[in-house]
Each structure stands twice: as structure tokens, then as C-alpha cells.
Design a protein that fits this description.
The protein has 104 residues and is mainly α. It has a single domain (8-93), classed as Arc Repressor Mutant, subunit A. The protein has five helices and three strands; from the N terminus they run H-H-E-H-H-E-E-H. The chain has helices at 8-12, 16-28, 33-40, 44-56, 78-101; strands at 31-32, 60-64, 72-76. A three-stranded antiparallel β-sheet has the order 1-3-2. A hairpin with a 7-residue loop joins strand 2 and strand 3. The mean pLDDT is 85.
Length: 104
């Protein structure tokens, strides 16, 4: 197995909180921003700030809920999905590399 691309994280230019938010949307699908915040254990305004930064990078979209205009729904863009899938592959490769090369 090739050595994992450990620089991928640096190139992604994501904080752990941003990546965590992307993972929540990747695993659970589109969600109200407040629900995303709850999943991350942060308050809604903090989640909104993270979503806005990810939106500027075209990784997340923010749409109005048709039933309640006060709710904003966050979802991954195709670019966001591709980034999460690439990063989870890198993380899985790192884990496999560690297990194979550091067994007792």
C-alpha cells in the first residue's frame, strides 16, 4: 500500500470544525443550520459563521426552508461532497497504513 498523502489536509485548508460540519452534512444530508450546530455541540450563530465561510468556498449551499422562512437549510455542493470523499479516503488510508506498519 502506498504511503498516504499526509499533505492533503493542509491543501484542503479546512479547520477541524469546518471538516466536522461537512461530515455532518455528508452523513445526514441537508439540515437546518441550528440542527448542524446541535450536532457539533455549538450554538447556531457559530454554525452560521462556519456555513458562511464554507459557502464562500462553494462547499456548502444555504437555502430558505419553504415552510418556515426563518430556517436556513445547509447542504453540500458537488465540490463539497468531492472534498469530503477525498478527505475520508485519505483518513482511511492513514489509518490502514498505521495499522499495517505499527502492529504489535
Amino acid at each position: 500500500m502506498p504511503v498516504p498523502d499526509l499533505d492533503a489536509w493542509t491543501r484542503s485548508d479546512l479547520t477541524m470544525r469546518q471538516f466536522s460540519l461537512l461530515l455532518v452534512l455528508w452523513t445526514r444530508g441537508p439540515l437546518p443550520v441550528g440542527v448542524v450546530g446541535d450536532a457539533l455541540g455549538i450554538v447556531s450563530p457559530s454554525a452560521t459563521g462556519i456555513v458562511k465561510r464554507l459557502r464562500k468556498r462553494n462547499l456548502v449551499t444555504l437555502t430558505m426552508n419553504a415552510d418556515d422562512e426563518r430556517l436556513r437549510i445547509a447542504s453540500l455542493t458537488d465540490e463539497g461532497k468531492a472534498l469530503v470523499e477525498a478527505m475520508t479516503t485519505v483518513l482511511a488510508n492513514c489509518e490502514e497504513h498505521m495499522v499495517q506498519n505499527h502492529s504489535v
